[in-house]
Amino acid sequence: MKLPRRNFLHLAASAAALPAVARTAWAQAYPARPVRIVVGFPPGGGADIVARLIGQWLSERLGQPFIIENRPGAASNIAAEAVIRSPPDGYTVLLVTLPANAINATLYDKLKFNFIRDIAPVAALTRDPNVMLVNPSFPAKTVPEFIAYAKANPGKINMASSGAGAAQHVAGELFMAMTGVQKNHVPYRGAAPALTDLISGQVQVFFDVTTSSIEHIKAGRLHALAVTSATRSEALPDIPTVGDFVPGYEASNFRGVGAPRNTHPAIVDKLNNEINAALVDPKIRTRLSDLGATVLAGSPADFGKLIVGETEKWGQVVRAANIKPE
Fold it and tell me: What's the Cα-to-Cα distance from 307 to each of 123, 193, 212, 254, rounded to whole Å?
């Protein structure tokens, strides 16, 4: 049977509109049950704090619990793989941590996943620097003084990290490579024991994340030589950047949300819109600022470009320093 041209065009237009209708229906129905936000680090750390802030906001806005599930281990690879292997239905998402997830792509040569391929970027959350920390009794009080002291005392600088290949480690390796300073790397199982030994003078320098060290800085237990971001931190406005003394140096930490590959675009867009709304809320912005973090709103595509760029950057550092996993 041959359809009249007007009827045919009407049917064609209706068919073309189906994806948009389906997309709207997906967005309206989601979420219909609790959502898990998987965090690759223990409770109480910076990643966990950010995840809980955003999880609470999403719970209140979307009417379903957003439950934080801490899955530490293997430098956050356990959490990433758990999310990647979950159904792409929006009910299991990952608290993405950069550069950790970016570093792991090069650090581990037998991963069962490809992070860039297997995680769908949803939204960036925050950006915060590391802080180049020394004990207050350390002779050097500035970055130039530290470089001069280290070169005059080769082999006497013990650099702490929260583990081989961790963000603090590669930030320190980049600094050493760009300044020619020699160091002994002392890896710890987490930032807390590294900070304890820095405060007691067992190690000389630690490139720690702001969120876990800022209270020690404010209390005078540690001295901050510089922040590692390209610009000064709003939380530590009087502290210069490493780049002020070592041109071109930059190392930042980013947090965001990712979902399993093939998650429906409507779900990704809905989460992105709600997260971006959270990032302009004054209470959340203030809380994040108190932790030394700056909000980083944007589209899923923006976050995807950031993941790719960080993976390329830190892959070069891992290879150049010949860093191996513990």
Answer: 11, 29, 23, 9
pLDDT digits (tens, 9 = 90+) for 227-279: 999 999 988 999 999 999 999 999 999 999 999 999 999 999 999 999 999 99
In this structure, are residues 233 and 87 in contact, taking their beta carbons and an 8 Å threshold?
no
- Bridge pairing between strands 223-227 and 35-39: unpaired
If one counts the domains in the chain, the total is: 2
Give the least confident one: 54-58, 217-221, 234-238.
234-238
Q: Are residues 97 and 189 in the same domain?
A: no
Give the whole-angstrom CA distance, residue 225 versus residue 213: 13
Residue type (1 letter), 23: R
The pLDDT assigned to 1 comes to 47
**pTM: predicted TM-score of the whole model, two decimal places:** 0.84
State phi, psi for 63 to the nearest 5 degrees. Answer: 75, 15
Q: Are residues 237 and 104 in the same domain?
A: no
Q: Within a domain: residue 22? A: no
Site of tokens 């030589």? 225
In a domain, 21, yes or no: no
